[in-house]
Each structure stands twice: as C-alpha cells, then as structure tokens.
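Entry 14. Two folds queued back to back today. First construct below, sequence then structure tokens.
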Amino acid sequence: MNLIEQFDQLNLILFSLLSLGILGFVDEYFFHHKKDQILKRQECFRENILHIIRLFTFSLIFFFVSATNLEGLFCFIPLGLIALDLVVSILDIFEEKKSRAKMGGLSTAEYFIHMSLSFHLGILYFNYIPYFLKKISLSNEFVAVNIVQTSNLRIIVFSFSLFSLLYFFYQLRQLFHFKKLKHYAFGHK
C-alpha cells in the first residue's frame, strides 16, 4: 500500500480535526484568554457564548469521529454538529466586529490564525460531509471503537475530545464567574 492509499477519507478528517484542535486552542487560549482577556470583557459576553458553543460542538465532533463508527441515521449526529458549527461560525463573524470594536478589532496575528482555521475547516467540510453522507444509506449502526486497539491518530483526536470538553467546562465557569463579578460591580443582584 502506498502513502496516498494510506490517507483515506477518515484519516484526512482526523488530520483536519487535529489541525483545527491545535489552531483553535492557540486562538482560544493565547488570543482570547491571555492576550485580550475577552472572558473578562462585558462587551464580549455574546462572543464568548458563541465560542463556548463552538468548543462544546467540536468536543462532540472529535469524539464521534475518533471513538465511534456511525452508519445510517446515526450519521445525522455528526452532520448536525457540523451544521450547528457553521451557523455559530457565521454568528461569530458578525459578533466579533461588535465585541472587539473597543479593542480596535482583531490583531493581525489573530486574523492569520482565523484564516488558517478557515482553511482547515474547508478541508474538513470537503472530507467530512461526503464521508457521512455516503454512510447514511447503510443500515443503522452506532459502534464504539476500541480506542486502545486503534490508530494513533484516532487516539490523539480522542484525547483532544477529552481535553476540549474539560476546557469547555473551564471556559464556562470562567465566563460566568466574570459575568457575576461584573453584575456585582454595577450594583445588580
């Protein structure tokens, strides 16, 4: 088997998810959490909610692609998740313009990360959607993959699903912690 045959559609999806996971983490942690601290900014609350929805959605996408084999009607789960992500992405584009206005918009480095994320997201869509659409016509099957006896790539993406789920809960906690502090600072209860 040559190198091209080894990179089947599922592996391309897994590589895309791995790239998106790394770039998404850099964007979320470095730009949102450390540099701009948007969790602490009241004007960024809706943007943060969209990012948290996206983080949870991708946690589930990482999980379903890495830890299950889905066929038939079960394929609507990952297809629905990618459709939800597309809607949230569009809403985020409009929201970021408003929420980052006081900061002068996004930095050049963050625009570059967003461009890279968009590129890898396009590659994911190009492989992910046809992969699951082809499997819809098969009989309904939801099978858990034995993660210990699978490819290293699946194990890595599965690890990302766990990590991103933990990060989701952390972000959610942080967001509502700062929102609560803002309310008390303005005298609201």
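Second construct, same run, same settings:
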Amino acid sequence: MKHNNITINIYACGGGGINIVNKSGLVSKITELTGDAYPLVKCHYFDTSMANYSEFMGKDFTLVTEQTLTNVNVAAGTNGNRSYSAAMADAAIREYIDKNKIGSGPNEIHIVIGSGAGGSGSTIAPTLVAYLGKKDLPVLPIMAGDSKDLESVKSTRRTLLTYRRIATDVLDKPIGMIYCDNNQYSDDYIKAINQANETIKNMVMFIIMLCGDNQNIDYADIKGWINPSKSVIPVSNIYNINITTMSGDVKLSGESKVLVSRILTSENNSKPIQNLETIHSKVGIINSDISSGLDDELFPLGFILSTGYFEAESIRLENIEKDKTSLLEKLVTPKASDIGTINGMIIV
C-alpha cells in the first residue's frame, strides 16, 4: 500500500487513550486513508490491564506490568494509582520502542494520547513523551483531563505539571500539546466523554491531513509547529495547540497569544485568510485527492500554537481542587457536638 514520505505513530496510553483511539472510530478512519497523498499511520497501544485489549491490536499492544511484559496473569490495572504504573512504564516503553526500531526512519511524527485523570495513561503517556523527546523526535502529547471529582482533578493537574517539567527540565525545549477537560463539554458525564473523544479524533484526523501532500508545507514545517526550535520560541514550556477555521476571527481562551501557525487552504477556497501576528506562519494548499469529499467551508483551516492557556488552566484546576478538598473536609470531619459520650467513652 503506497503512502507519502511521512510516517505518523499514534500511541494510545491507558484505558482512556485506547478508548479515544479505538471506540471513537479513529482506527477505522485511519484504515480508509490509502494512496500516495496520505501519510502512513501506525497505532501502538500501552496499558496496565488487559481489559481494554482487542484482538486487532495484536503485537502492537504492550502490557505494562511489574512482572514480564508478556505475563498477562498479573495485568489487573492500577485503579488510578499513578505512582504504581510510573514505576513500570519506563522499561516497557524502552523495550517496545527499541525492539520495533521506532524513530529510526525518516520523517516520523509521534502523537501520544492518554487521559490525565487515570492511573495508567497519566504516567505512561508522559513517560513516552519524555523518551521520544530525548531521541529528538517530534512528539505531540494529547491529554484528556477531568475535573468531575477530587481525585480526577488532582491527577489532571499533576499530569499537566509533569508535562511542563518534561518540557522545561527533561527536554529543555518547547512542546506543543492538545488538551481538553471532559467535564467542560456537558453535564452528562458519558456525553461529555464521548464529545471529548470525538473532538480529539477530529483533531488527529486534521493533523493527518496536514501531513498529507500539499503545496508549501513540508515535514520540517510540521515539526516546527509541534516542537518549535528555541530560535523561534526561546522559552522551554508546554504550549497549547488548537485547530480552528481561519475564515473569521480566531478566538483563543483568556490571555492566549498565537506564536506559530500552519494554515491549510484548498484550491476551491475563495475566503480570505485571517492575518495573524505570529512569530512564524506558513500557508499550504491541500492536495485535491485529500480535499475531495471535504466541505469547502472547512477551509482555510488553522493549526495554532499559542501561549498563556496552560497557566490559566493550572490556576483553574488548582482552585477546583481546593474547593473540592474543602467540601470533603466539611463532610468527613465531625463537629465535637456531633460525637456523643458516656462516661468519657466515645459512642461509635
């Protein structure tokens, strides 16, 4: 099967990451991408439990356990315990990546997908990002966070901090990152997760489209958008990535400022492209083999890397954590007047 000269490796980490890649329909969409205009897309799966395993994953599934990598009998998951899976992830990742010679080919893009709220994906995904980043491979983390309850918001905030430390201390370079909070999509939790998964699926498909054949945007331009060089952005940190239509005003959250942009348009597009004040921008015209069948209203499509968002999000999550912690303390800490005694003995 022929493809263009770019390879995209997608890593589904933990139950949340696997559900995003598998149950959202992303895998089936990827199998439809055939022809010289499209990149080659490969999916890899990492989890501490066999509960999310499907037969089609085969040898692309890595079981992360404290025993051997192939011993499925001990694979019971982590029940949200981040420290437990962190201790196991590094060795499993190194063995899989090195055994399969991932990163040894030309023009590879690496997309790492995981939940920030669970115990497996929130540690396996950052460990993967750090390991791939140390190999100087272009890596894009995608994180689905959650603020529905205290443990979820604590884990989400700490996972964001982990990614920031990877960018600032481990890799010392700017890292673009896609992030969403499931809880912000709907009051119905199941609908919220489904909507978040659908959003991430669409963003991944747009990135695949960006990596397809087009005039003017090449592999180096995509790499420079995902992980800008320090000559473009001198401050090592995580930077928010958003994908949006460019036909109107581009609206970003809070104090966000656009730093780098890649814009795709089509030969049939007659709408003007909004001029953004950026450090670096590039416009490409998508191959007609890829744009055929797509709604012309989609274009021009902007791939935006901005600053300011994660600072505000970290504060928001910290405030939610404080509120939920305070509420919990009120619920579980009884007042002295609520505790009865007989002859000094506490009645239980």
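Quick look at the second one. The first strand starts at residue 7 and ends at 13. Confidence is low (pLDDT under 50) at residues 67-81, 339-344.
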